[in-house]
Amino acid sequence: EDQVTQSPEALRLQEGESSSLNCSYTVSGLRGLFWYRQDPGKGPEFLFTLYSAGEEKEKERLKATLTKKESFLHITAPKPEDSATYLCAVRYAGGTSYGKLTFGQGTILTVHP
Amino acid sequence: ETGVTQTPRHLVMGMTNKKSLKCEQHLGHNAMYWYKQSAKKPLELMFVYNFKEQTENNSVPSRFSPECPNSSHLFLHLHTLQPEDSALYLCASSQGGPLGELFFGEGSRLTVL
Q: Minimal CA–CA distance to B83: which of B13, B10, B34, B7?
């Protein structure tokens, strides 16, 4: 069964304490892996797209990496404003000609000052 | 206005009411989507439209009826809903058809009494 699993479900960090979020997937024919950030009461905000193993993308304190089975979202020296739910989504072959897009359940990140 | 705009932001309706959710995107994208977000569950795709044509219906009950009059507007007509339909309904759009990254609106919080 095709699956997208994010871990941990929740993560509490002190300001400045670097860590990583994980998104593992068991799908065939990966067409793209997406990271989103969602603040309470708002829609998800696009962060990154990764297409192939070994690819990396960076934005401010965030860095996303991709292997053949998982992606990591590394957060370096986080600040309280980085607190949000981080969602991973995987597009893969299947369904329509555009493939299928499946979201993980998300990781709730809380950064304490 | 910029981005993806959803109205209303909050909606409370009885099980026998008929209401509609509206979405408008100002990004010049050609694909639009409805997603359902329930507590503790991953985002669920409901419908996909590409150039006004419905390309995907993810086995959604007929009490949800989408309408896409043009590439910038998307509606979700609601009738005879159940309490378990209470959720955050998110509209999204993407460039380059359903392969591109999604840009979400802020959502319509629906409560069915």
A: B13
Kindly report, residue by residue over B72-108, the tens digit of the pLDDT.
999 999 999 999 999 999 999 998 765 678 999 999 9
Whether chain B has a CB inside 8 Å of the CB on A101: the answer is yes
Contact B61, B77 (CB under 8 A): no
The tens place of each residue's pLDDT in chain A, 113 residues long, gives 668 999 999 999 999 999 999 999 998 888 899 999 999 989 999 999 999 999 999 999 999 999 999 999 999 999 999 999 999 999 887 766 666 789 999 999 999 99
Whether residue A43 and residue B55 make contact (CB cut-off 8 A), yes or no, is no
- The size of the A-B interface in CB pairs under 8 A is 56
What is the least distance, in Å, from the CA of B102 to any CA of chain A? 7
A40 inside 8 A of chain B by CB: no
**Rounded Cα gap, residues A88 and A57, in angstroms:** 14
Q: E strand or H helix at B103, and its extent?
A: strand B103-104
